[in-house]
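Same chain as my last thread, 539 residues:
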Amino acid sequence: MTKHHRCQYWLLQLLLLVPLLFSASTQAETKWDTESSRYLEQLLKNNPGRLRELNQAAITDFYRQRQYRLLWSDDTDRLDRAYDLLQVIIHAQDEGLEPSDYYLDAIRGYWNSVQLGDSVQLDLLLSAALYRYADDVYAGRFDPGKVDTEWNIQNDPIDIPGLFVKVARRTSIEDILKQLSPQHAGYQRLKEQLRHYRELEQQGGWQRLPWGPVLELGVQHEQVLALKRRLEVSGDLVDHPFPEMDLFDRWLEQAVVHFQQRHGLKADGRVGPQTRRSLNISVSDRIRQIRINLERWRWLPRDLGKRYLMVNMTGFELYIIENEAVVFSMPVIIGKTYRATPAFSGLVSYMEYNPYWTIPINLVFEDIIPRQIDDPSYLERKSIKLYRGWTKPREVDPQTVDWRRLNEKRFPYWLRQEPGPKNALGRIKFIVSNPYEIYLHGTPDTHLFDRVIRSFSSGCIRVKDPVALAAFLLNDGSRQQQEEVLENIHQGTNQGVILPIAVPIYLVYWTSWVDQDGTLNFRKDIYNRDTLLNELFSR
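reply #2:
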């Protein structure tokens, strides 16, 4: 259920009471605005509880402060700002929202009436629609805490009283309404793709590709023509010189590679089972996926900063962003499905060269001890030392410990991996302010970056190029700065460095986004965080 659906019934019931509260015995000599204000005042005073149920006490206060003068009409017609709001509601789908959520049918029902009582009802409907639309498009249609418990990035609530004051001061509110949605480039690009995909849906979308053999370079098969049509509709195949040939040629192979790249698949140019499944996801399902991610954009703060980091978990990529433009990116590794990385924001303000790794207790029992039991030389080979006591730690010989008899409640030790090439954190660790003990770091297992799906960590973010990231955080990311970073690493000693400026970082979960070059991407919902939102957007 949305934040407001449970209240819509009560608003409509409330408005139906107006003709019962007031008769048509308005004296002819009474001014229209005076009589309409009296109607509105009595309505609001007689039914305050219902309005509170609608979470719209701000509207009641607003009307009281303006002596119950109507906001959207005068004695001659609807005001320009009413037309502006109506147009925004009609086109709410452009933002991935539903026009029906904003009382569109009821508003249309009263729009052309000249009856004073109908104008009062229309005024309240428009105000309620503004309240609800502004809240949805600014902060999200759904409460992130209820639909995605792993989303921990907060957006400030919209200033509803301030919004109504601004609206009342303007004849036209087109610009005010336009600024309610996120102005981030990523949101605006994705919104444009939503419009395009709705057009594709209206044109019939694309046909499913029947199950069949693997289609690859050199294959001649009747399904090749269906594959061409499918990729032409989605824009992956453009201007093929031989559209009627059933031969899988290099133009088609390049189109398949393009499709695979933007869907996070192995880009081998072959249409096997996995690529075929992705090709057969319908336009309507992709539209719903875009709407889900527009919603997540609305959960973000409006000001992300002029210079910040963003980790897109499903894309396994870290972006360095300045003035809304990506200036550098690198592959990352995120948490395993059973050690999923949460979405959160924080600050990177400190880093370490040649870090130690104090191994968390859960990893000690889940990973380290089983390997030590299988291989008694494991700790030594991995440069992991065993200690007892924290105040005056004493190193313990691992061979003297009966590892099979230990458990998490009976474990008087702690383990730490020494700095060096074997260290699981690599040569640089980046500290991030957050309550989850998650940070960014390098890794000696660089071969894992060659994988398409990179969910191998215990929750922290492994970065492919920690030297380049450190150079960016310390200064401008230049080659000279990178050389200074390498010099510090080569010293081999553990060093802590406070960054000159703390840099914001956002760990986000996009399953659909648009690159700077305009390429629309889709990814698999690896942590199943789209599931509940998908159900809600399907209703």
